[in-house]
Amino acid sequence: MVEHGGSPGEKTEEWRSRWEKIYDGSEVAKMKRTGHFFSSSDEIEQWMTEQGIKFERIKERRIDKMSSAYEERYNLSEEELGKLREIVGDDDFYILTDWIIYPKE
């Protein structure tokens, strides 16, 4: 089984844009990341299909209030958390998808 957390299938670019502002570290230094990329479940499935990987999507769910998870993980101050929530706005979530990957025949 493979699990992926990423952007929604709709308005993907808008979602990515907001989270990129967080991960560039300019607004909340503790959140800086390098070498990251967000993809939607559909993009992952397209790639798996192109690679000839057999799979089945078994579960997909929306995980709300990602900012709360990051608050705890990075020990964000109230000011940092406020900035994070201001930037991501209504996009304070990610989509968690699980697939079964089947062996090649």
Structure description:
By secondary structure, the chain is α+β, with helices and mostly antiparallel strands. It has one domain (2-102). Helices cover 40% and strands 25% of the residues. It has four helices and three strands. It has a three-stranded antiparallel beta sheet with strand order 1-3-2, covered by helices on one side. The chain is elongated and about 55 Å long. 14% of the residues are buried. The model has no long low-confidence stretch (mean pLDDT 88).
Give the helices and strands, then pairings.
Layout: E1 2-6, H1 12-23, H2 41-50, E2 54-64, H3 66-74, H4 78-88, E3 93-102
Antiparallel strand pairs: 1-3, 2-3
In a few lines, what is going on in this structure?
The chain has 105 residues and is of the alpha+beta class. 40% of the residues lie in helices and 25% in strands.
Question: Strands of the largest sheet, in order across it?
Answer: 1-3-2
Shape: elongated
Q: Which segments are poorly predicted (pLDDT under 50) over 5 or more consecutive residues?
A: none
Tally of helical segments: 4
> Averaging pLDDT over every residue, what do you get?
88
Provide the helix percentage: 40-55%
Percent strand equals: 15-25%
Cα-atom radius of gyration: 16 Å
Order of helices and strands: EHHEHHE
Judged by helices, strands and strand pairing, the structural class is: alpha+beta
Q: Count of DSSP E strands?
A: 3
Major sheet details: 3 strands, antiparallel
What is the end-to-end distance?
17 Å
Tally of domains: 1
